[in-house]
Amino acid sequence: MERRGFMGKRERLNAFQLFNYGWFVLFTLICVFPFYYLFINTISNNDLSSRGLVLFYPLDIHLTNYANVFKLPGLGLAAVVSLSRTVIGTALTVFSSAFLGYLFTKNEMWGRKFWYRFLIITMYFNAGLIPWYLTMLNLGLVNNFLVYILPAIVSPFFIILVKTFIESTPAALQESAQIDGAGYWVIFTKIILPLSMPILATISIFAAVGQWNSFTDTLFLVTNQKLFSLQFILYRYMNEATSLAQLMRQTSGAVNIDLTNMATPTSIRTTVSMVVVTPILLVYPFFQRFFVKGIMIGAVKG
C-alpha cells in the first residue's frame, strides 16, 4: 500500500511538472512570437507582408529592407545619441542610487527621515506636463543633451531598492571597517559597492532599458535634429512610413521594380522596429541572471 501510494504521488508530481513545463514553454512562445513575427516580416516578400500573408515563416527571403533602412537620414546619428544617453545615463543613475541608498542607511545623516520621506513623496505626486516643461526650460535643458541625463539621475525606486539591500547585509562588516579607521567613502567603495553588485546589475538593466526606450523627452524638449534619439526616429518614421516608402521607391529608380523588394509602410515599420529593439535584446540576457537575486534581496520588506 505504501509503495502504491508513493507511486501515485510520484505520478501526480510528474504530471504537475509536465503541466508546469508546458505552461512556461507556451508562455515563452507567446513572449517571443511578436519579435519573431517582426523579424520574418522584415526579410519576406514586401507585397505579401503588407497584405498580412506572412504569419509563421518567411516567404521569398531578402535583406533589401535592412539595406534601405540603414540609408534613412539621421539614423546613424540617432543611434549614437541613444547609445550615449544609455551608457552615461545608466552609469550616473546607478552610482547615485547606490550612494544615496547607502547614505539613507546612516542614522547620523542630517535630516535622514525628512529627506527619505521627501524622496518617497515624489513617487506619487508630480506637477504635470506644463510645469515640468517650464522647469526644464528655466534650467536650460531644452535642446540640451543633458536633458537625457540629469532628470534621471535620482530615481526614488532604485534608491529604495539599494537601501533595502544594504540594510540586509551584515552590519559588522561596516563596523569593523570603521574600527580600522575607514571613512564613509572608503566603506562605500570598498565594501558596499562589491556587496551590492546583484542589485546594482538589476537596476542597471532597468535604467538602461528606460533610457534606450525613452522618446517623450525628445518629443517635448528637443527640436535640434542632432539630438534626436533612436526611439524618436522610430516614432517619427512609424508615422511617416507611407511617405518614406514612396521616397524609397523613387530613389530606387523604380518604374518596374519587383514587388518583392519594393518598400511598403509595413516593411518600413517592421524593419525600423527590429533595428531599434535588437541592441537591447542582445544586452538583456547578460544581466538576466542578476534579476531574481537582486530583486528578492532588495525587495521592500514589510
TrEMBL record:
Keywords: Cell membrane, Membrane, Transmembrane, Transmembrane helix, Transport. GO terms for cellular component: plasma membrane. GO terms for biological process: transmembrane transport. Pfam families: BPD_transp_1. It comes from the Bacteria. Residues 79-287 form the ABC transmembrane type-1 domain. The chain crosses the membrane at residues 21-40, 75-102, 114-133, 145-166, 187-209, 268-287. It is found in: Cell membrane. It is a multi-pass membrane protein. Belongs to the binding-protein-dependent transport system permease family. PANTHER family: ABC TRANSPORTER PERMEASE PROTEIN MG189-RELATED-RELATED, POLYGALACTURONAN_RHAMNOGALACTURONAN TRANSPORT SYSTEM PERMEASE PROTEIN YTCP. This is ABC transporter permease. It comes from Paenibacillus oryzae.
